[in-house]
Amino acid sequence: MCIDYRQLNQKLVKDKFPLPLIEDVLDTLQEAKVYSTLDLRNGFFHVDVDEDWRKYTSFIAPDGQFEFNKVPFGLSTSPGVFQRYVSSIFRDLTGKGEL
């Protein structure tokens, strides 16, 4: 299912949370001794949408009207919201050469 959020995106206040640049990430990892990977596929679906804002994500399907409980793909604010979520989880490791 693909939902067209273009009209909603025009009205949203842009999330200015900085996304990391790949060059900066690679520079940080250059001196690392241990590496690990995380699969962040469908990562947006692990971040809750505030209950008051869920109505704005609603859509109609053959079985009825639905709204997202988790951050959907397609919203212009989703990448910043997700990055803020990930950064908060790893807050204690960043900047110490551990992440």
Automatic annotation (TrEMBL):
Residues 1-99 form the Reverse transcriptase domain. It holds the Pfam family RVT_1. GO terms for biological process: DNA biosynthetic process. It comes from the Eukaryota. SUPFAM superfamilies: DNA/RNA polymerases (SSF56672). This is Retrovirus-related Pol polyprotein from transposon 412.
